[in-house]
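Holo prediction — nicotinamide-adenine-dinucleotide.
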Amino acid sequence: MTVNLAIIGAGGMGRAYIKAFKQMPEANVIAVVDVDEKRAREVAKEYGVPEYYSDWRKVVKKDGIDAVAVCTPVKFHKEITVGALNSGKHVMCEKPPAMNAVEAEEMARAAKENNRILMYGFQWRFMEKSRYIRKLVQEGFFGHIYRARIHYLRQFGIPLGADGWFRTRSLAGGGVLIDCGVHLIDLTYWLTGRPKPILAFGKQYDYIGRRFTNFDVEDTYIGLVLFENGMSMVVEASWAQNWHNEHGINIYGTLAGASIYPQVEIVKKIGDVYTTIKPEIKEAEAGHLKLKHFIEAIGKGYRDISPTPEDGVVVMKILDALYRASEEGKVIEIT
Ligand SMILES: NC(=O)c1ccc[n+]([C@@H]2O[C@H](COP(=O)([O-])OP(=O)(O)OC[C@H]3O[C@@H](n4cnc5c(N)ncnc54)[C@H](O)[C@@H]3O)[C@@H](O)[C@H]2O)c1
């Protein structure tokens, strides 16, 4: 089966999608869309995509297109995704799912009502190391995972995007938390077996970002999320800090602990000895695997690794609660 696709948003991610789909015999990109028609035309020409458009509404109604990929600024994710689902198309929507959980719920409803696949661009799940740890979690290797610590802290790396949308709350929904933190939150949520989040607290900062013009989002977020099964998750995300890059994802279980990123390392007490295991995992291109999985899901349905519409709702609820906690200066219940 060949899946005919339209790519909506011809910026950095839209181009990466076209390149990846071109390597898959089961995918066929037949249209590219961008509000900037010149960009759509240039990208179509560069990658040999037969059709280009400036209005996504026309494209989602077209016969002969089975699925669309949404690679626009976050503000447009919901409108385009729901429009495409209601026109009977499957949708691969980039991360973060939406501006907030209310939008993600509407997207999930549209996917269900139209019986179409909707997936989100959470490619960190598709790293070989993530799959490896997920399998160990499922086998009970770590026991009860009662704590997670995730940090993604860049010394400097504030994205811009077309017309600076990444730095504009009304277009991006927020700053580093919704842009980068969302990947780590999603990964940890999935790795640890999708526990239900119940409480969130945290604080956002913009001391470095505010030095730039047209910047109204956070450059740093520090938070804590609690889950119904007792697990706590410390979240630290930064686009800019007066310190080196610091990245890590750790899970702590009653039987063993692991670091998943940047390198996989496992610590388990064997007898009286804390033993460190450093598995040699060969990485493949996670972004490519994510798209391949989407194409497969159109025929076969969701699997455990799939970033589903429901996962999108939960992740957005966590983000909403963290942002509210910072704004209101109190612990927020997640319902
Ligand atoms: N998975 C990842 O690791 C990852 C990495 C980067 C970006 N992203 C996500 O991908 C999406 C796009 O980011 P990007 O870096 O490609 O941004 P970008 O600014 O490079 O490209 C966005 C494109 O969308 C176009 N656009 C804006 N509104 C549109 C509309 N209504 N209809 C059609 N086109 C429209 C813009 O003209 C621009 O060409 C975002 O959701 C972003 O968060 C994901």
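READOUT: The longest strand covers residues 145-153.
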